[in-house]
Amino acid sequence: MKIRLSVLFSAMLLSISAVAQSSAPPADLDTYVHKAMTQWQVPGLAVAIVKDGKLVFARGYGVRELGKPGKVDANTLFTIGSVSKQFTVAALGTLVSASKLRWDAPVTGYLKNFQFGSPYVTQNIMLSDLLSHRSGYCDPLWMWYTSDDTAANVIQRLRYQTPDYGFRAQFCYNNTMYLAASLFIPTITGESWNDYVAQHLFAPLGMTHTDTTEAAVEAAANAALPHAKVDGKVEVIQRYWANNMDVFAAVGGINSSVNDMSHWLEMLLADGKYHGKTVLDPAVIQTMETPQTIIPAHTWIGDWLRTQTPDSHFYAYGFGFMLQDYGQYNVVWHAGDINGMATAMALVPSEHLGVIVLSNMDQNRAAEGVVFHVLQSYLKLPHFDVSQALYDSRQKADAKDQADQNKLAATRQKDAQPPRPLSDYAGIYRDDFYGTANVTEVSGHLVLQLGNPDFTGDLALWHDNTFRVTWRDHYYGKSYVTFDLDAYGKPDKLSFALIPMHYQRLVTGK
User: Fold this and answer.
1) Which of 340, 369, 401 is the last residue of a domain?
2) Distance of alpha carbon 245 from its chain centroid, rounded?
3) Alpha helices, DSSP H only, in 270-348?
4) How do residues 408-450 score in pLDDT, each as one tens digit?
5) In a domain, 416, yes or no
6) Which run of H or E residues covers position 417?
């Protein structure tokens, strides 16, 4: 039977058209992005989509800095937050592939000063436990967040942390475990994490604009500035660098663009290959994307996941990735947040689909909204507005936080006088885990400074021995501290309200 050339040609055109249509971004993507940005008050955002081995969409929206004309484009740098953890895992994976490391390597075999309060946990914890958040210790946020310490010293202070769960009993997200994991790299190679990741990942992937240091992003001409709502108004805030982000780059401090990050997505979706060359062993990617720990529904992360994808049946953590079902597909994804920046990325390996969203607004969830909107379109899943669902959830959480603050505010005693002379409160307070809190008397009032100078605040008497702290960097808002008195009626302990931070007095002020 003969086939007419015109029929064959028409069939070929239809086939090409179908492929092009399957790779095309959602027709309403711009509309959804603008809606989500308005909802979350996001100044700037960028999106890239990879499908079937190609970058099919890369676009910027909004501005790099509120009130300034500089537009966001596909090469604008954003801090990607905890998506950085994937690069730490991949870098470790190159050492595993080279037989220089095992995923089940004992941590103390490489980090001699790594220690928990429990000798059993110290002796038995492995690299895989650090990477899958199953150490039994939850993230000690206020310990590292208020610190200007070195990575080694932060890790050394973990021996004073109280466990939240039994060893390997439950998932609990912990940034300091990834900080510890990153220290394997200089121990084994003699190179810094920054240099090793740049050489073994950024360079072969052609991620020429991606960097890991404060100096590099500050010198970049096309970099987004971080924003947050401060005193009810969206404004530029300082980068997390002031809080020691160079130390925490392996945890959440990589700066990249959606164009550069699209190379990362392409490689992960192509079993480790990029432009015909193997960058990462496929076995490493398979391990990263294999469930290691179930994420329970009753945790804050579990609640967040159920809010954005309520019909999913499981949530798990691999190495640097969250894993879940979405419709009939398995999705590999992660989000990232750091002062004034928010990121979300996702992969659907079976469909050779990847999407990355970067934004410059604090703790906004527009990024996840856009990611899942893209997934719904490509996977032909029912529409569910993830941005709206997360926004409604945030409003409830904010209302609860405000209610807690209102309760504290209602305790104020007007015209109260401090029970002790202000000089009695001045002094150095210390905790082995949290570090130092220094209280000084300056011009008739008290000033509190934690380990990092950015956490400097002015104290005003609230009632009895409780003072309200107004942080000089208004991004951090207000806190409350209470001084406990010893048997002689002198302040000897400082504690924060709503935060489990306690410091014992070491030196009496004059």
Assistant:
1) 401
2) 12
3) 282-288, 300-308
4) 888 898 888 999 999 999 999 999 999 999 999 999 999 999 9
5) no
6) none
Enter the DSSP assignment of 162: P
Average pLDDT, the chain: 93
State pLDDT tens for residues 118-135.
Answer: 999 999 999 999 999 999
Q: Which residues contact 251 (CB under 8 A, 6 or more apart)?
A: 82, 84, 85, 88, 175, 176, 178, 179, 182
For residue 408, the model assigns a pLDDT of 84
pLDDT of residue 148 exceeding 90, the answer is no
pLDDT at 21: 54
Q: What is the CATH number of the domain that holds 110?
A: 3.40.710.10
Orientation angle between helical segments 366-379 and 386-409, nearest 10 degrees: 160
Residues 52 and 200 in one domain: yes
Decide: 387 and 369 in contact? Cβ < 8 Å: yes
| Beta strand segments in 159-265, E | 227-230, 233-236, 255-256
Length of the chain: 510
Residue 366's nearest CA partner among 8, 38, 28 is 38
Residue 417 resides in a domain: no
**60: helix, coil or strand?**
strand
Q: Do residues 267 and 217 both lie within one domain?
A: yes
Same domain, 294 and 330: yes
What is the spatial distance between Cα 284 and Cα 71, in angstroms, rounded to a whole number? Answer: 37
Other C-beta atoms closer than 10 Å to the C-beta of 300 total 11
Residues 6+ apart with CB under 8 A from 44: 60, 61, 62, 63, 64, 72, 76, 224, 359, 360
Domain identity same for 289 and 249: yes
Q: How far, in whole angstroms, is CA 74 from its chain's centroid?
A: 21
Inside any domain, residue 335: yes
431 residue type, one letter:
D
pTM: 0.93
The model's pLDDT over 70-118, given as tens digits with 9 standing for 90+, comes to: 999 999 999 999 999 999 999 999 999 999 999 999 999 999 999 999 9
> Mind giving me the DSSP string for 342-376?
EEEEEEEGGGTEEEEEEE-STT--HHHHHHHHHHH
Do 397 and 426 lie in a common domain? no
Write the DSSP symbol of residue 109: G
Look up residue 281 and give its DSSP letter.
Answer: -
The domain in which residue 309 lies consists of 7-401
Same domain, 390 and 465: no
Domain count, the chain: 2
CATH number at residue 476: 2.40.128.600
Identify whether residues 388 and 489 lie together within a single domain: no
Q: Write down which residue in 370, 401, 432 finishes a domain.
A: 401
State how far the Cα of 373 lies from the Cα of 378, in Å rounded to an integer: 9
Do 430 and 392 lie in a common domain? no
Amino acid residing at 267: M
